[in-house]
Amino acid sequence: MKTVLKSGITLVLFSLFAGLAMAQDNALSQFFANRIYLNPAFAGIEKGLQFTTSARTQWLRADGGYQFSALSVEWQEPCWRSGVGLTVQYADEGIAPMKMTGGGLTYSYIVPFERSNLHIGAQYAYQQNTLDWSRLTFSDQLDPVFGSIYGTSAPVGLEKVDFHDFNAGIVWRSDSRLLGGRRHLVRYRSHVGLAVNHLWSLFGQGPDASFLQSGTEIPARITLHGGTVIPLVVLEGSAKKMVVSPNFRLEMQGSSPLNPVKSLTLFTGGAYFIFEQAVFGAYYHSRAPLPGIKHTNALSLSIGFTQSEKELKRYGYFLGLSVDVNMNGVGIRSGNVYELNMRYNFRKIRPICYKKHAATTRKTVMECKDFY
Asked: Domain 2-357 - what CATH class?
């Protein structure tokens, strides 16, 4: 009996702390909406003062589920070719519960070219995790008749763990033109980016995030993403705003993030469509880049609203709501995933270096078209 209890204790502890070590970072379904969370190189991509909030709730029927929220503030200084950002994040998961509180400071430098920009970003982050051990039940506390009535011999770890972290990223944005229709030039905006989170863990020097202080690092995460914003010309001479934008994201996280066997992977692919001010999106989330029911985790549908072309010079905003329908693993009975993203930009607020920027050359920071 003692052997069984010890094995049970070992299994519970292994499941808890191995899960913490190999768990993926939170991944937003509307990753195109919260750009600085996707890649720190996006900091200050738009002129003016910008606020972005994200709230994500998933699997509420599974023992409290998981809740995540984030707030970011960004600012662009075009003549210094720089962007700065401040982020705050909070997560609550499980019955115990385990809570995460964190924040970060981001700086990006923009290298302008004739019809493209190169964004290079770095982020310092601080995170604190807490766990209420008194609300955990171990196998040696259980009586087959009366339930949890005994004390436990399981080692109790720290109730609070905090650490410093570093992230980095790079984004290439380009503005191209194609001849479409009757001698009409169709301009489309594309981007591709690469981000590395928990940078020091790539070199075996990451922070110890274990409540038992066992030397368990947060695994590094590598994100490759890209997309294109293409205006549609359906009726010649029509003033209607119509845009389609396919996007993708591939995340790999683990002790060897470039090895798919030893890492957790998430691929998201799909597109959003803008008609006037209405935004519709459809994406699928999968463990592999190629679609297939075997690897598909969820299908994500979203609806939102954005500013009109006339309003864009004064301010910009986006409001998006999405729902992920789980396809396998954690099924529909878990409660699915709901996500709300809001962004507002005070575009008329002048930068500190406004006068100097007025005399710069043609090689300036590209205006943000729709989301990118």
From this structure: mainly beta
Q: Mean pLDDT over all residues of the chain?
A: 81
Report residue 37's pLDDT band, with 50, 70 and 90 as the boundaries: very high
Contact 300, 266 (CB under 8 A): no
Residue 307 has pLDDT above 80, yes or no: yes
pTM of the full predicted structure?
A: 0.83
In the chain, domain spans = 2-357
Can you give the three-state secondary structure of the chain, one letter per residue? CHHHHHHHHHHHHHHHHHHHHHCCCCCCCCCCCCHHHHCHHHCCCCCCEEEEEEEEEECCCCCCCEEEEEEEEEEEEHHHCEEEEEEEEEEEECCCCEEEEEEEEEEEEEEECCCEEEEEEEEEEEEEEEECHHHCCCHHHEECCCEECCCCCCCCCCCEEEEEEEEEEEEEEEEEEEEECCCEEEEEEEEEEEEEECHHHHHCCCCECCCCCCCCECCEEEEEEEEEEEECCCCCCCCCCEEEEEEEEEEEEECCCCCCCCEEEEEEEEEEEEECCEEEEEEEEECCCCCCCCCEEEEEEEEEEECCCCCCCCEEEEEEEEEEEECCCCCHHHCCEEEEEEEEEECCCCCCCHHHHCCCCCCCCCCCCCCC
Question: Distance from first CA to last CA of the chain, Å, rounded?
Answer: 61
